[in-house]
Amino acid sequence: MQLDFFPSRTMTLYIAKMFAVRVVAVLLMLVMVLQMLDLLSESGEILAHAGNGQAQLLTYVGLRAPQLVARFLPYSVLLATIITLITLNQNSEVIAMKAAGLSAHQVLAPLFLVAGVIAVGNFAFNERIVTRSTATLKAWQAAHYGPLPTDTQVRSNVWLQDGPNILYARTVTGEGTAMQMTDVTWHRRDPTGMVTEIIRAPSASYANPGWRFARPTTFDVQSARRTQASQDMVLATGVTPTQILIRKADADAESLPHLSRSIAAIRAAGHSTSELESRWWHKISGPLSALLMPLLGAVAAFGLARSGQLFMRAVIGMALGFAYFVVDNAALAMGSFGGYPPLVAAWAPFVLFLLVGETVLIRTEE
After folding, report:
1. Is the previous residue joined to 349 through a cis bond, with omega within 30 degrees of 0?
2. Which of 335, 272, 263, 302 is nearest to 97 (CA)?
3. Taking the mean position of all CA atoms in its chain, how far away is CA 94?
4. What's the first-to-final CA gap in the chain, in angstroms?
5. What is the Rg, in whole angstroms, of the alpha carbon atoms belonging to the chain?
6. Does this model's pTM top 0.90?
7. Beta bridge pairs of residue 182
8. Which pLDDT does position 246 carry in this prediction?
9. How far is 65 from 84, CA to CA, in rounded Å?
10. Residue 255 φ/ψ, nearest 5 degrees
11. Residue-wise pLDDT tens digits, 14-64
């Protein structure tokens, strides 16, 4: 028995089913409560746009819910671990399993199995659904909840410097030479930094070099005179699509292959990619955090329920789990501004708490 990682098939299915049901229940509870609170805070802005109603509120829920599921799934696994193990402990089932010759790791093996399936599913869910819903939601928010954009690869509120001048675009879509801008404004500035001329256009396309402003309108600040240009104008010759990619690459809204291409383009331009590389690795290490939760919450499984310390063990398990999330976010923030190498920022918390959890389990139960 000690040489088998899993207990009997019946025992494995029993514990795995109990654990999976609790994960789903906790996740649904968290997502429903958080979605309701989030919708209350955003509903005013959504309904402020003329024509929006219940359909748009449901659209928002459909786009926001995947983000909440992906973010709080590891928390749900942690809480479900503690609930499952406390239940087994209170019913003396853990004592019965250990009396039958099972080790602590064998007792936890069904939980690791379910957590592994959840981690793989969470990774696929992030790549196929969450990135797309995030991109669509950000594009919709950039349009102030107007008509839902058809192009979800939208970069909003882009400010770029063209020498002393400033280029602004409300939205930017596409990539490379096919990049398009909408609601574009170019501010001409004198050597002292004062704006002397403002040129606006409903759209602009890349002219290589510069950007071709369609149907531009010029406004002279000194004379306060507005004129409609008779032809398109090419401006901002110092701004390239790569600069826009550098300023507005969004790891949350890009899948791993897409993010890899963004990193390669930014690196080729000679700019730092530490933040994006940290996010790239965290797209893998983040979902795998579900595998840590049974280990960190395992302290709640052992010890006699009648000793009166079961509640304290549950608190310790929760503290270990939430400490991981705090350290993980801190390390990712350090990696974003170059304090840690990207690989260390993404994986160091995972490895650290894996060792901590194993140490606690081995020294106390094995």
Report:
1. no
2. 302
3. 37
4. 15
5. 27
6. no
7. 171, 203
8. 62
9. 26
10. -75, 170
11. 999 999 999 999 999 999 999 999 999 999 999 998 888 899 999 999 999
Long-range contacts of 139-145 (CB under 8 A, 24+ apart): 139/171, 140/63, 142/170, 142/171, 143/171, 144/45, 144/49, 145/45, 145/46, 145/48, 145/49, 145/52, 145/56, 145/60
Distance CA 254, CA 127 (A): 8
Question: How far apart are alpha carbons 356 and 261 in whole angstroms?
Answer: 36
More confident residue, 170 or 284: 284
Q: What DSSP string runs through 13-73?
A: HHHHHHHHHHHHHHHHHHHHHHHHHHHHHHHHHHHHSTT--HHHHHHHHHHHHHHHHHHHH
What DSSP element (H or E) covers 158?
A: strand 154-162
User: Would you list the DSSP string of 198-247?
Assistant: EEEEEEEEE-SSSEEEES-EEEETTTTEEEE-SS-EEE-TT--HHHHHHH
Q: Measured in whole angstroms, how far is the alpha carbon of residue 170 from the centre of its chain?
A: 23
Report which of 244, 216, 237, 243 is spatially closest to residue 228, judged by C-alpha positions: 216
Can you say how many angstroms the Cα of residue 330 is from the centroid of all Cα atoms in its chain?
15
| Whole-Å CA distances, 358 to 236, 289, 296, 365 | 58, 15, 8, 10
* Other Cβ atoms closer than 10 A to 297: 29
In order of 108, 111, 253, 356, 358, the CA distances from 304 in angstroms are 17, 21, 47, 23, 21
